[in-house]
Write a structure and sequence with these properties.
Elements lengths: L1 H11 L1 H13 L8 H14 L2 E5 L3 E7 L2 E12 L26 H17 L5 E9 L8 H7 L11 E11 L3 E3 L2 E4 L3 E8 L3 E2 L9 H19 L6 E9 L6 E2 L2 E10 L2 H21 L3 E8 L4 E3 L1 H15 L4 E3 L10 H6 L2 E9 L20 H16 L3
Parallel strand pairs: 3-4, 3-5, 5-16, 6-15
Antiparallel strand pairs: 1-2, 2-4, 6-16, 7-14, 8-12, 8-13, 9-11, 10-12
Length: 394
């Protein structure tokens, strides 16, 4: 049986996948400079006899062809970059690159895909079809490695019928996965706003054009875009996390600088909201005698798990893990550049449980204490191999 064979292989290589993960965790690299990580992936693929090509500078695409006749193609994606976080864990595989850490689990994704590649390469006589292995750079930084790899043709020659991705989830116990059909993660845009007025003495406000008060009005008023313009049934988030008014207790500054994020799950509304926010902020500033520069940097689109594909993958996962180990996911307003794949082809992005409360492994991603229960690496490799082959029709 295919399932039993893959499960046995995933157990057999579990120790090696842990070694891959620990090596990558100890040697993290930031977005767009994953040179050593890329070299490590290439060397491992060479050892496995898997052909590869470079893409998007540090990206790697491996190709595995089953020996049975089939034109079916599927792509599996794992991201490789780390975050600018100083690790606080006291573990043998602690980051050796000061101030850089695999705090989002991309070491897990890369090592898991290497393990999946090993399984598939070993049993290629048993299946038909082609599997693309996408080792992707720069998920954590705009414009996103997925976008760049798509532009360079990662979904062509041959074109996959679907792209699959998995991501660690510390809210789910190791041994389980989470999945959601349809809209799952939000688009994300960066907002950079400068309100320019006329500074002066705080005791003489009549002589000034106070950008602090004007900026405050703009921040509060923009929330009406969410509460009074957006469809209440459509998830929308507008948050400002940085406000700099470099004056003093009695000094009104000339300008105020603001940074924020806008997130939603509809591309038409996203574009409309951009226009409304910019028009409102600039109009309010002008009406109060000031000016406003409102810059929007477009980030990742929203992520959608194609319903038919996702239903199929859920069935495969329940068969492989047991129905009790496949959980439903809620909407998630975080963003992922895997969304680019989901906008141009059928895609499914599911969550890999990594939590173990009894061992204190509960920290969220993007924190200095994030870690995983490495038992999850046995599931991550075997499950993706099984889903890929079932999807190919084997």
């Amino acid at each position: 049986m295919l399932k039993e064979k893959i499960q046995e292989l995933s157990k057999h290589i579990h120790g090696d996948v842990i070694k891959h993960r620990r090596h990558l965790h100890a040697n993290p690299e930031l977005s767009f400079v994953e040179y050593n990580t890329s070299a490590y992936v290439k060397a491992t693929l060479d050892e496995l006899g898997i052909s590869w090509l470079s893409m998007a500078s540090t990206g790697v695409v491996g190709i595995i062809k089953g020996e049975k006749q089939s034109d079916a193609v599927i792509a599996l994606r794992g991201d490789m970059d780390a975050l600018p976080i100083r690790e606080a864990n006291d573990v043998p595989y602690k980051s050796q690159n000061e101030g850089v850490m695999h705090a989002c689990g991309h070491d897990v994704h890369t090592s898991s895909l290497l393990g999946t590649a090993r399984i598939l390469q070993q049993i290629r006589a048993d299946f038909g079809g082609t599997i693309k292995l996408i080792f992707q750079p720069a998920e954590e930084r705009l414009p996103g490695g997925a976008n760049l790899m798509i532009q360079e043709g990662v979904l062509e020659n041959p074109r996959p019928s679907a792209v699959l991705g998995q991501h660690v989830m510390p809210l789910i116990d190791a041994g389980k996965i989470g999945i959601r059909s349809g809209k799952y993660m939000a688009s994300t845009d960066e907002l950079y706003v400068t309100v320019k007025g006329k500074g002066g003495h705080g005791a003489q406000p009549q002589q000034n054009i106070d950008p602090v008060v004007i900026a405050a009005h703009i921040i509060v008023a923009l929330q009406q875009i969410v509460s009074r313009v957006s469809d209440p049934k459509l998830p929308t988030v507008l948050s400002f996390g940085k406000v700099i008014a470099n004056g003093a207790t009695n000094v009104i500054p000339d300008e105020v600088y603001i940074e924020g994020t806008f997130r939603t799950m509809d591309e038409v509304w996203r574009a409309e909201a951009h226009k409304r926010m910019k028009k409102m902020a600039e109009g309010m500033a002008e009406s109060m005698g000031a000016s406003c520069e409102f810059k929007i940097v477009n980030g990742y689109p929203f992520l959608i798990n194609e319903p038919d594909l996702t239903a199929q993958i859920r069935t495969f996962a329940e068969n492989y893990l047991g129905k009790e180990n496949v959980e439903d996911l809620d909407l998630w307003m975080a963003a992922e550049d895997f969304a680019y794949y989901s906008q141009v082809t059928d895609a499914c992005f599911y969550r890999l449980g990594t939590r173990n409360e009894s061992r204190g492994i509960t920290s969220s991603v993007h924190t200095p204490t994030f870690d995983i229960d490495e038992r999850a690496l046995e599931i991550s490799t075997g499950l993706m191999a099984y889903i890929a082959l079932k999807r190919l029709g084997n």
